[in-house]
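Exercise 7. Given the components listed, write out the predicted structure of the assembled complex. Treat all entries as one system.
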Amino acid sequence: MLDDVDRRILRQWQADPSLAPQDLAEKVGASQGQVTRRVARLRDAGVVQAVETEVDWTALGYAVQVSLRVTLDKTAPRAFDEFIAAARTVPEVLEVQTFLGRVDVRLNLIARDMPHYQQVYRSQIMTLPHIADIEALMQVARIKSEEALPL
Amino acid sequence: MIDLDDIDRSLVLSLARDATQSAGALGREFGLSQPATWRRIKRLREAGVLGARRLRLNSEKLGFGVTVFLGVKLATKGRVSLEDFERAVIAIPEVQTVEHVLGLYDYRLRVVARDLPDFERVLRRRIMTLPGAGEVEANVLLSEERLPGPLLP
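Answer.
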């Protein structure tokens, strides 16, 4: 179980993941050794999964980002597994999510520009197995993207 | 636009997974000196390819058992400004991401909650009361997989 010090560590660290251990300790009001031990424990427990670096795909020339909302043909017994396994092999797919609701699976897809998107969509997405319907939401702007938890 | 060779790509992939690796350790992995690795990382940062660090937390282990994606349509387009909606929506702590999209909906939100009753509270008290919010569609996240993207050789 997490105590208040753990929560303070996570809150401060989440707000600024580039904090050096001594600065984190100072903000939390604990010794550096204590914070280091607790951070190690939070990692071992899988509460902290990783410290990642955000990759900006726009800077790499991928200007288009589309959310593809897919409905699958559920009469096929292995529709989910087969669709997901095939979607994983498309290099431009960044995320595969499954849902309970009107949408079955969502793919987050990037492309260099609209002609490239059209090409990927036609040759690699439309050919995925068991698709009943696809709706596309094109990203205009990211308004909030830190994906922080309200700790 | 920046040109990347195979080593740059490997560095981006590796740092995307774990930002805490030192230039020395990465250099040893990819057969470069520490200063050469550091110069490459600096160039990738300056080009904006490598951005800020992000803590990846296990939301379930922290008591957030439910993640829901909402498609939100604005009810009164033209009358309520997008800025008003955006300012209000980003202030909601349970709203993790907000995307302005083109298509069936105007905005796509990622929302976390402790459980379904907690989600209902967020939906009714915070989301439905947003200025200009109209039709809302909710899909509960069951599983999620992040892929490395078009960097692998």
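Discussion: Chain B touches chain A through 62 residues (CB under 8 Å). Chain B has five helices and five strands.
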